[in-house]
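in:
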């Protein structure tokens, strides 16, 4: 249940430039999704901080195709990860890696 809610929250938040990430579940989905949209392969991370830092460094300087992608990157950059790094965080990262522009479905 939690993965679907976090996924839907991110899709909704992508439409607005004033939203923020509220937890590691959303962060993980955004990391996976931005990698997918950028054509980057997924990685293996040991901490949520490593996931965020690895994604941000891989995407730095990228030109985004639309405002949704730009909003997701902005939210990711502003987020301070929590210590939670469970199977659902990893599942949401994988979900993002397997999505293709979820707001166009």
């Amino acid at each position: 249940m939690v993965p679907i809610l976090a996924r839907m929250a991110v899709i909704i938040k992508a439409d607005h430039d004033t939203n923020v990430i509220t937890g590691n579940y959303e962060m993980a989905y955004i990391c996976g999704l931005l990698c997918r949209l950028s054509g980057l392969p997924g990685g293996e991370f040991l901490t949520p901080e490593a996931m965020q830092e690895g994604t941000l460094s891989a995407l730095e300087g990228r030109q985004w195709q639309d405002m949704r992608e730009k909003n997701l990157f902005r939210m990711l950059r502003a987020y301070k990860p929590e210590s939670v790094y469970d199977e659902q965080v990893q599942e949401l990262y994988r979900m993002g890696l397997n999505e293709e522009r979820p707001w166009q479905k």
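note: The chain has a mean pLDDT of 92.
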